[in-house]
Amino acid sequence: ILWSCSSSLVFSPEAYKQAVDLKVESLNLMSFATEPFVEHEDEVSFLKTELDKAYEFALGRPSNEISTEQWKILIDKDGNLLGGFLNRWETEGMLGEMFVTEMQSLVGDAFDTIIGLESGKIDPSESK
Known about the structure:
Blueprint: H1 2-6, H2 13-30, H3 41-60, H4 65-75, H5 82-92, H6 97-119
Helix pairs in contact: 2-3, 2-6, 3-4, 4-6
């Protein structure tokens, strides 16, 4: 049943690329969380803006509620994924290496879910 519902959704190369790019950028930036937040404040601010753009893009696509909800969970500053991680880094100033590594794994999995949702949609150029 899930497959039949998701197969009616249209694949967006832009949404796919956006998710892949943001995954790489996010995981890379997270690796610097063992350093003082103030040294990376501009990069974090830029990343948050790019994540907000991705969420808004997902929100604006028709029949895209599941992907939109995944973006919302990922970027929630009070949540337990990327948004919460960035918020904690800012609040605490620096984070421990083990915590950063563990969070990178969880955030990577969350991005993989979003990427998988997008790649499971039908590419209209292939339906001819």
